[in-house]
Amino acid sequence: MKKIFIILPLFLSGFLFSQKKPQKSPAKKGTVARFNYHDEFRKISDEIMTNGTAYDNLGELTKRIGPRFSATPGYTKAVEWAEKKFKEIGINMIWRQEAKAPVWIRGKESLQIRSGNGDWKNIRMLSFGNSEGTGGKDLVGEIVLINSTTELNAMSIGQLKDKIVFVNIPMDPKIINTSDSYLQTAKSKLISASVIAKTGAKALIIRSLTTANDDTPHAKMIYYEPDDKVKIPALSIGVRSADELEKTLKKQKVTAKINMTAESKGDTTNPNIIAEIGGKKDSKVIVLGAQLDSWDIGEGAVDDGTGVVQCIEVLRTLKALGYENNHTIRVVLYANSENGGQGREMYAAYVKKKDEKHVFALGTDAGGYSPRGFSLDMSPQRRRLVYPWKEYFLPYGVYDFDQTEAIQDISPLKKLDIPLAELVVDTQRYFDYHHSEQDTFDKVNKRELLLGAVAITQMIFMVDKNW
């Protein structure tokens, strides 16, 4: 009986593309005709792979606007660009939702190291986002290497006082899912400026969280605890510099000289951009989201320009095919995802206050690589409703429905018991470019980007017809 209830919604659905009735398999007398989902999936795929504009849109977003960091003119330009794109595809319902955003300025920054009594050597570095600076003055101190919490706990009181702590923890190459590897490393207490400050240390240097074997530093977000008496500067360096520094530290004393003019200047507001196609059957909402902001370095192509243009492509495709959706299909382009997350919190608060019924939320923030599946962060009962859809996705290389965590900007909606899903892609190259100056348009493959848009549109379609 359970199988009947799982599959029955697929038999009872129907919809209209371009005012053409969908093809149905011949029905035997006394039975319900089966809807041909394979044909409708193909229509979606053919439209996007032939007429898709996501790649061209990404070129505009990255090359004409570039970095879209919170509280900067670049973000303001991105907002205006997104609104224009929604209007161009025929979306009439577009609005802004203001969210708090910190004003943080990176300024000038430099790191020099000296072995023994040798000469100072410049090292490429990046301040953590929202990090305190050195006031433009040189902060000089001996570097101490700590690569495990055991080493940290073994330090006696005073051993790290006025020292500069260096943490050289690589992403674990044995973990095949690079997102899991990243998160495991990112959660280490050793790369918390608040934890290190409590030891008496006066600065933190970490190895960039990346899978690349180069010397490009990658940015990271910093969170200071409310009870921090001292907010120490924190920065990252490339993996080659990190490994070389560790080798040198094992042989002799190394001194660092840090100079950062980074500073915070309070808060302002940046808007989420929301666009939707109203439902023909009811006002229940299917929401699709990506972050509009990016780091202040690079062009923000893989993180998350690809997600932005995929969201726009979903609405463009539905309009082009003349699809009459049952529920409201909404896109939210979130503000302040990189250095605060206020945009996603604001949207979740809005949904709660309005008591809007959301049947599904999907996020895309993984770089526009080849789609492999969807992580289903929902109840087991809901997950079982999705599993029978696998056969329709398989011809498009989408097969992984076993992951169960959606951690992108849709995550606050989980507190409202909204079923979540996240596009799963092949992430083996994602962290080569993530949060670095290497995150540029040329790193994105057009076909992979469009295939991701195909999978997302197909999933939105299936939820709309069956939930």
TrEMBL record:
<keyword id="KW-0732">Signal</keyword>
<dbReference type="GO" id="GO:0005764">
    <property type="term" value="C:lysosome"/>
</dbReference>
<protein>
    <recommendedName>
        <fullName>Carboxypeptidase Q</fullName>
    </recommendedName>
</protein>
<keyword id="KW-0482">Metalloprotease</keyword>
<dbReference type="GO" id="GO:0006508">
    <property type="term" value="P:proteolysis"/>
</dbReference>
<dbReference type="GO" id="GO:0070573">
    <property type="term" value="F:metallodipeptidase activity"/>
</dbReference>
<keyword id="KW-0121">Carboxypeptidase</keyword>
<dbReference type="GO" id="GO:0046872">
    <property type="term" value="F:metal ion binding"/>
</dbReference>
<keyword id="KW-0325">Glycoprotein</keyword>
<keyword id="KW-0458">Lysosome</keyword>
<dbReference type="GO" id="GO:0005576">
    <property type="term" value="C:extracellular region"/>
</dbReference>
<keyword id="KW-0333">Golgi apparatus</keyword>
<keyword id="KW-0865">Zymogen</keyword>
<dbReference type="InterPro" id="IPR039866">
    <property type="entry name" value="CPQ"/>
</dbReference>
<dbReference type="Pfam" id="PF04389">
    <property type="entry name" value="Peptidase_M28"/>
</dbReference>
<keyword id="KW-0479">Metal-binding</keyword>
<dbReference type="GO" id="GO:0004180">
    <property type="term" value="F:carboxypeptidase activity"/>
</dbReference>
<comment type="subunit">
    <text>Homodimer. The monomeric form is inactive while the homodimer is active.</text>
</comment>
<keyword id="KW-0256">Endoplasmic reticulum</keyword>
<dbReference type="InterPro" id="IPR007484">
    <property type="entry name" value="Peptidase_M28"/>
</dbReference>
<keyword id="KW-0862">Zinc</keyword>
<keyword id="KW-0964">Secreted</keyword>
<keyword id="KW-0378">Hydrolase</keyword>
<keyword id="KW-0645">Protease</keyword>
<feature type="domain" description="Peptidase M28">
    <location>
        <begin position="272"/>
        <end position="449"/>
    </location>
</feature>
